[in-house]
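Let us practice reading a record.
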Amino acid sequence: MRTALLQSSGRPGSVVGNLKVLDEAAGRAAEAGAGLMVVPEMFLTGYAIGDDIARLAEEADGDSADAVAEIAGRHGVAIVYGYPERAGEAVFNAAQLVSAEGVRLANYRKTHLFGCFERDHFTPGEQSVVQAELDGLRVGILICYDVEFPENVRAHALAGTDLLVVPTAQMHPFQFVAESMIPVRAFENQMYVAYVNRAGREGEFEFVGLSTLAGPDGVARTRAGRENDFVLADVDPVFLAASRETNPYLQDRRPGLYESLV
């Protein structure tokens, strides 16, 4: 499945503006033959928007979700997008997967909040593994900081995730996560990992870009630069199956030795 990675901070504070950017990018992804497009963390509203997070937060099935579903259906491209989700009095840092037919397939709430900014504005999610079937692949979702905890990614591996999508807002000076950690996570867990970042300065944060899609062999299939970018790579289930046959990590685990981890 050809996968498009949109590296952009969009138009912080403007849901309408970001939906327009999303629409344009979805058209570009469709023209390139992509079946899935992934965009960054909090793309729908912007990340560093302070108290506007609560004001712009919407339910998982709100008006903006309907707008994204319409875009996905019109272009025939599945979309994973980050947004602030309102659920009662709580606001979650969330990401949602919408199919190429415009059907909402999965919604994930970030479980590990990074820094005072996120802890001041969000409630942490409580479900570590969220998945959906897409074009014969089992797609799982994490958000940014979540992927830096090896337990999270291993839980996805044990649950059969083939492609782990990670909308992110990775900041300077932590670019080693995109450069080094993501390919290792893909290799040690025998899956593809699509890590899609924001770019440029936004408020107090400087996002490092470097979005990548890494394969189960630990090799980056594509890597964006530091500015706004749009890159593509293929997720190959045949290669994944062959890699899992030859890499013994998951088979050679000894869970009885790891009880102290929890």
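A brief commentary: The longest strand covers residues 78-87.
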